[in-house]
Amino acid sequence: MMKTILAKVDLSQPEAMEIIRRAAKILQEGGLVAFPTETVYGLGGNGLDGAACEKIYLAKGRPSDNPLILHISELEELKPIVGEISPAAQRLMDAFWPGPLTMVFPKSDIVPEKATGGLDTVAVRFPNHPVARAIIREAGLPIAAPSANSSGKPSPTRASHVAFDLDGRIDMIVDGGAAEWGLESTIVDVSGEVPMILRPGAVTKEMMEEVVGRVEIDPAILRKPEADLKPKAPGMKYTHYSPKAEVILVKGEKEAVAAKINALAAEDMAQGRKTGVMATEETKSLYHADIILSLGSRMKPEEIGANLFKYLRKFDFLGAERVYSEVFSEEGEGMAIMNRLHKAAGYRIIDIEEEANGKGACD
Ligand code: TXA
Ligand code: MG
Questions:
Q1: Angle, in degrees to the nearest 10, between helices 130-139 and 16-28
Q2: Which tens digits make up the pLDDT trace of 34-63?
Q3: 146 CA distance to ligand 2 centroid (A)?
Q4: Cβ(104) – ligand 1 distance below 6 Å
Q5: Does any ligand 1 atom lie closer than 6 A to the CB of residue 234?
Q6: Residue 94, Cβ neighbours under 10 Å: how many?
Q7: pTM here?
Q8: By the 8 A CB rule, do 356 and 252 touch?
Q9: Which DSSP string do the residues of 30-86 spell out, in sequence order?
Q10: 181, 184, 236, 340: which to mutate for ligand 1, most atoms within 8 A of CB?
């Protein structure tokens, strides 16, 4: 166990720069610092130092074939770490950087294989969070930063989530408040001819198509990964993204979903199982269970996205053993929400209409 420094930072205060400099120095010396971004908290290390990258894998308990994202604080920091920048990549950069978009480029020789899990491409993100950018700029290095959770847990959207998972395993946690988006960045591979989305996020397919015309989606992210359909982002093949509780999605018309969940929850509770429901503002009054949490209003998908990981963690905290969740539209940002929900549930979904048609569902 090492001592983890926990420092709150408010950039409007003069003492903030001292904390930023301290974090940057730790990174330059090969240590690990967790910091906020506008998507989720990242666990940073020197992205050009194989040994620092190795420490990241160790601290998270992350499989070493799952590559890291390098974070930059200015556009000119991109060139040295990538090979060719395609015209489509250039247009996406102009439109969405800094922001919640990660792009996969051919990598340059200075990026160690430890950072890319042996791949010849590198994922790069230019975050739009002032604290992240200040730390990266001060360190003067591309910063490798996966989400700052233990591998398999929901990504952290608060410094307290990072501390819960990684206290004693990393050098410092910089607390810059809640992450605004709450879901990890969109990943788009721009190393080929047509940009391909490898992980859905706040920057949607429609938004990118407006800028570059055609954009494809890795078919493997839309359904359960199988041997014949491996996701192109290695991290997307891990289904357990999840709380300790078993999560089951229930799909159908509002009242039917509530009736189904209430019936299943009643059985669970009768067997002494602590049971939760992940509901919305519009539906929370329909349920009976030990724990009912509302993700927010269905009219505001950005609110649902921002709260999802926080509530998955909260169910754990409250000791839920089984959690039933409603599903959401896959339009726009909804694709990112449903992608994470499916993963949290290990792809278990009860489709009420299919069940009524005799197909059976819970697989
Ligand atoms: O919003 C985010 O992207 C956050 C914040 C901290 O920036 N970071 C994040 O990192 O989500 P991580 O490590 O949890 O997820 C990175 C994903 C993994 O699924 C990984 O497999 C994929 O990016 N990835 C990284 N490099 C890649 C590459 N060269 N080709 C394909 N996928 C890659
Ligand atoms: Mg992650």
A1: 50
A2: 999 999 999 999 999 999 999 999 999 998
A3: 6
A4: yes
A5: yes
A6: 10
A7: 0.95
A8: no
A9: T--EEE--SSS-EEEEETT-HHHHHHHHHHHT--TTSPPEEE-SSGGGTGGGBS---
A10: 184
